[in-house]
Specification:
By secondary structure, the chain is an alpha/beta fold. The chain has six helices and five strands. The protein has a five-stranded mixed beta sheet with strand order 3-2-1-4-5, sandwiched between helices. A hairpin with a 5-residue loop joins strand 2 and strand 3 (46-53). The termini are far apart.
Length: 184
């Protein structure tokens, strides 16, 4: 897999806030079943959004807890697309953007495995921006919030959250929290 190392000032790059829902936590066994993302410019204007449900190839290997958390049902995923198609669409949408998310390494490991499987070279920048790490530095010496999960930090900022473990809702909330974390 070739990684995008295009020389470009990071201040000129868009950010792509991505959240994935998976059939479990192990990238070697489990699969991506939903991708939500927002492409934003450096002034935090949303340029594009993307949300697709993805057909799992091996639903038999899914963790029942993950299936319940994501709300996966055959009916809700009736119009899902292939992971190959979803990756191709996200790749074009996020060209040259820096990858951002909540606990971003987890999502990146799943995406990296999928890109390798389908022999797709990611077009977005290889740098990762982890909003959870930013929250850690902001709240380390404060009494609140009492945890670093996305819901607790969003509640601290009084940001409404939609369905928990919905890819688009979590990507959107991560973006909103990121904006709050970046305020002086």
């Amino acid at each position: 897999m070739k990684i995008n190392t295009k020389q470009m000032n990071f201040r000129d790059r868009n950010l792509v806030f991505i959240d994935l829902e998976m059939t479990g936590l192990d990238p070697a066994v489990h699969e991506i079943i939903e991708i939500g993302c927002l492409v934003v410019d450096q002034k935090c204007n949303v340029l594009k959004t993307y949300n697709k449900k993805v057909h799992p190839e091996h639903p038999e290997s899914a963790d029942p807890v993950a299936i319940e958390m994501t709300g996966y049902t055959n009916e809700k995923w009736l119009n899902a697309i292939s992971l190959n198609d979803a990756l191709a669409e996200v790749n074009v949408l996020a060209t040259d953007a820096m990858f951002a998310g909540w606990n971003v390494l987890s999502d990146w490991l799943f995406l990296e495995k999928a890109f390798l499987k389908y022999k797709i070279d990611p077009l977005f920048d290889y740098h990762l921006i982890d909003a959870m790490s930013l929250a850690y530095t902001k709240f380390l010496h404060l009494d609140k919030p009492d945890g670093l999960n996305l819901r607790k930090v969003a509640e601290y900022y009084q940001l409404p959250m939609g369905q928990i473990h919905g890819a688009m809702e979590d990507a959107t909330t991560t973006f909103k929290v990121f904006k709050k974390l970046m305020e002086k």
